[in-house]
Amino acid sequence: MTALFAAIICVLTMFITIPLPSMGYLNFSDFLVLLLSSFMPPQYLILAGGTGTFLADIFLGYGYYAPITFLAKSLEGLTAYYIQKKGGRPYLAYALGALSMLVVYALAEALMGSNAVLFIEAVIVNLPQALGCYVLALIFKRPFLKTMEKIYGHTR
């Protein structure tokens, strides 16, 4: 199941993308990473979300960014997972998960460019993706979990 979701995330990231004028692209990987945080144990969540997006970056020619993406997506999923595990509502868990992804990318941009302005630019560039995927994850959470329960017999 983990490998299947890693492959789905990789394909979703690679084929449904919106190129940005700056380097990189917007995609919908966060949507599935957030959904999986409501279903998968953390070690599998890291493998599915982190590895799927890592591979997509490599296949799309952004190999230098793949480790950052792995960290960003893994942290996003783990943040959302643990907030839900502690009883937090999905809307809060998904929001803080998406925020953690945003911060990782912004810090990476600022550190690679040695420029604090790049931090702000990265937040602005990644904000539509974070917000869009947050909303999609909230909309599709219930049907996704019902489907997973039918297939696997449980949702955690």
Would you mind describing this structure in some detail?
The chain has helices spanning 2-15, 29-36, 42-59, 66-85, 90-113, 116-152, and strands spanning 17-19, 25-27. The chain is mainly alpha-helical. A two-stranded antiparallel sheet has the order 1-2. Helix 2 (29-36) crosses helix 6 (116-152). The chain is globular and about 50 Å long. The model has no long low-confidence stretch (mean pLDDT 90).
Question: How would you describe this structure in keywords?
Answer:
globular, Arp2/3 complex 21 kDa subunit ARPC3, 156 residues, single chain, mainly alpha
Q: What's this entry about, in short?
A:
Helices cover 78% and strands 4% of the residues.
Shape category: globular
- Compute the separation of the termini in Å: 14 Å
SSE ordering: HEEHHHHH
Question: Biggest sheet, open or closed, and with what strands and sense?
Answer: 2 strands, antiparallel
> Order of strands across the biggest sheet?
1-2
Spans of at least 5 consecutive residues whose pLDDT stays below 50 are: none
Query: Per CATH, which architecture?
Result: Orthogonal Bundle
The structural domain count equals 1
Helix content: over 70%
Q: How many beta-strand runs?
A: 2
According to CATH, the fold-level topology is Arp2/3 complex 21 kDa subunit ARPC3
From the helix content, strand content and strand pairing, which structural class follows?
mainly alpha
CATH class: Mainly Alpha
How many alpha or pi helices? 6
- Rg (CA only): 15 Å
Mean pLDDT: 90
Percentage of residues in DSSP E strands:
under 5%
